[in-house]
Amino acid sequence: MSEKSNVVFIGRKPTMNYVLAVITGFSTLNSEEVVLKARGRAISTAIDVAEITRRRFLSDVKVKDIKIGTDQIERVEDGGISNVSTIEVILSK
Amino acid sequence: MSEKSNVVFIGRKPTMNYVLAVITGFSTLNSEEVVLKARGRAISTAIDVAEITRRRFLSDVKVKDIKIGTDQIERVEDGGISNVSTIEVILSK
Predict the structure, then answer these.
(1) Are A6 and A31 in contact (CB under 8 A)?
(2) Of B41, B47, B69, the CB nearest to A68
(3) Is the Cβ pair B43, A40 closer than 8 Å?
(4) Which of A69, A71, A80, B90 is 20 to 30 Å from B67 by CA-CA measure?
């Protein structure tokens, strides 16, 4: 198992897809930690994923740490720089 | 100053309105802590508010803690119960 398999990048797919990825990380891959990473509007989804996983499926999973930050991304339209907020939610058994 | 003045509830207003409220909390009201509270889609805005405040205006403000949870709310349409994720971002000087 590579370290990468512990990171779930949250995007625009249905929330339950990511919940399933987290459950797979803990159960099938037997990880001790799974990290959710999200930017911008997907940040709300990341929190939903953490809460649904903990409350509905894996009650022994805890939120170990939450880190926030800012990424600078280049806009496609005009090549300018935009700031976008980021979050990392570290879930652990 | 009451304790309540330290809490900024994040909703659907422009992000900078909330940034201004946080700056007012620290500067005018001289609070040592300001707590951002948000639910659902406003969670992303809360992270934006924390990041913009820290990076652009008050560089001595730190993210002291971030707590997530779930609120149960009654739907207006059918009276059923929906779960909504919540976040508290505790900013301190």
Answers:
(1) yes
(2) B47
(3) no
(4) A71
Angle at A88 (CA atoms; ends A23, A63), nearest 5 degrees: 55
For residue B30, the model assigns a pLDDT of 81
The residue among B39, B68, B83, B87 with the most chain A CBs within 10 A of its CB, best to mutate, is B68
Verify whether the Cβ–Cβ distance B85 to A48 is below 8 Å. Answer: yes
pTM (two decimals)? 0.89
The answer to whether residues B50 and B34 touch, using CB atoms and an 8 Å cutoff, is: no
Distances (CA, A) of A43 to A89, B6, B70: 10, 24, 15
For residues B49 and B18, the answer to whether their CB atoms sit within 8 Å is yes
Q: Is A47 on the interface with B (CB under 8 A)?
A: yes
Cα–Cα distances (Å) from B66 to A15, A63, B22, in that order, read: 21, 10, 16
List, in order of start, the domains of chain A with CATH numbers: 6-92 (3.30.110.20)
